[in-house]
């Protein structure tokens, strides 16, 4: 089984040598493991090049099954630890940036005071990639809008407000509230979050078509561009906490909100440490 885990780590980091260091093997040892796996399957799984390591076409086809096998093995090990009374393990989470920046640091710190041996691996993605990671077993669960979690189980956590964000010298920056119609007439910077955009859904509900000038994947890049006067946007209130950008943050009328929840395949089969963390999170949801 260590051969499957080694293959997954090589694909994750794109290097035999880095994988060997991370897993505690010699480079020749990890190479022998992959060679043994390829011999057993009678298939070439990996290709090395100057730019790194990548899967062969045959490896691409088999990799989802290898990921699931490795995930099931990790879950079995975690269950064994639970049976033995060892409260440790690795928690793999898919998360959007606002959650990883503002909710998870404190929650992880508090959780590790109770379970100090637990480790966390965070994969930052969007409403498209996170559900895919959950289904493939690359992460144990993820923080997303439940509306994009087709085929997954979900736990709804809370709704959060979205605010209009404008340059400080913008004429609308003096308003107490702004409307979607007013925002639709401005150069709009869209936060690209994959399968769902709450701002676009709000515009479409009112039959409005925003003047989208740029689609950007990073919240803080958008804030920097708004500060330079390149446009306006709608961002989660959670993102706008403790930011030092010189921008105006204004409520929208009618209010625009988003729902955040936890998505997972099967709560009974994910690693025990992840189940503990989900239970802890539900009981201590941050403001």
Q: What topology emerges from the helices and strands here?
A:
Elements: H1 2-13, H2 16-23, H3 27-41, E1 46-49, E2 52-55, H4 57-84, E3 89-95, H5 97-102, H6 104-114, E4 118-124, H7 129-136, E5 141-144, E6 153-167, E7 178-179, H8 180-184, E8 187-191, H9 198-205, E9 211-216, H10 219-227, E10 233-236, E11 247-250, E12 252-253, E13 256-264, H11 272-283
Parallel strand pairs: 3-4, 3-5, 7-12, 8-9
Antiparallel strand pairs: 1-2, 5-13, 6-10, 6-11, 6-13
Helix pairs in contact: 1-2, 1-3, 1-4, 2-3
Question: Can you describe this structure in just a few lines?
Answer:
The protein is α/β, with parallel strands linked by helices and 287 residues long. The chain contains eleven helices and 13 strands.
CA radius of gyration = 22 Å
| Helix percentage range | 40-55%
Structural class: alpha/beta
* Number of β-strand runs: 13
Largest sheet: 7 strands, mixed
Query: Could you please say which CATH topology of one domain applies here?
Result: D-Maltodextrin-Binding Protein, domain 2
Which of globular, elongated, flat, extended, rod-shaped describes the shape? elongated
Specify the CATH homologous superfamily of one domain: Periplasmic binding protein-like II
Order of helices and strands: HHHEEHEHHEHEEEHEHEHEEEEH
Question: How many angstroms separate the termini?
Answer: 42 Å
Q: Mean of the pLDDT scores?
A: 91
Low-confidence spans: none
Beta-strand portion reads 25-35%
The total count of helices amounts to 11
- CATH class of one domain, named Alpha Beta
């Amino acid at each position: 089984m260590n051969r499957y885990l080694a293959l997954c780590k090589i694909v994750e980091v794109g290097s035999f040598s880095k994988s060997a260091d991370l897993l505690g093997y010699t480079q020749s040892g990890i190479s022998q493991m992959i060679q043994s796996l390829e011999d057993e399957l009678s298939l070439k799984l990996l290709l090395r090049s100057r730019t790194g390591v990548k899967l062969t076409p045959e490896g691409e086809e088999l990799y989802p099954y290898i990921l699931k096998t490795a995930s099931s093995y990790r879950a079995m090990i975690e269950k064994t630890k639970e049976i033995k009374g060892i409260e440790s393990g690795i928690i793999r989470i898919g998360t959007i940036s606002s959650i990883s920046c503002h909710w998870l640091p404190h929650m992880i710190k508090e959780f590790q005071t109770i379970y100090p041996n637990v480790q966390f691996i965070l994969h930052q993605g969007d409403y498209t990639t996170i559900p895919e990671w959950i289904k493939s077993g690359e992460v144990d669960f993820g923080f997303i809008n439940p509306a994009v979690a087709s085929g997954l189980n979900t736990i709804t956590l809370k709704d959060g407000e979205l605010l209009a964000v404008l340059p400080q010298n913008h004429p609308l920056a003096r308003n107490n509230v702004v409307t979607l119609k007013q925002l639709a007439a401005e150069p709009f910077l869209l936060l690209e979050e994959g399968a769902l955009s709450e701002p676009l859904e709000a515009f479409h509900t009112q039959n409005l078509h925003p003047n989208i000038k740029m689609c950007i994947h990073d919240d803080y890049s958008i804030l920097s561009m708004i500060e330079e006067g390149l446009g306006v946007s709608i961002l989660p209130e959670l993102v706008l906490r403790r930011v030092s950008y010189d921008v105006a943050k204004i409520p929208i009328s009618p209010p625009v909100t988003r729902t955040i929840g936890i998505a997972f395949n099967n709560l009974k089969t994910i690693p025990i440490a992840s189940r503990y963390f989900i239970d802890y999170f539900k009981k201590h949801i941050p403001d």
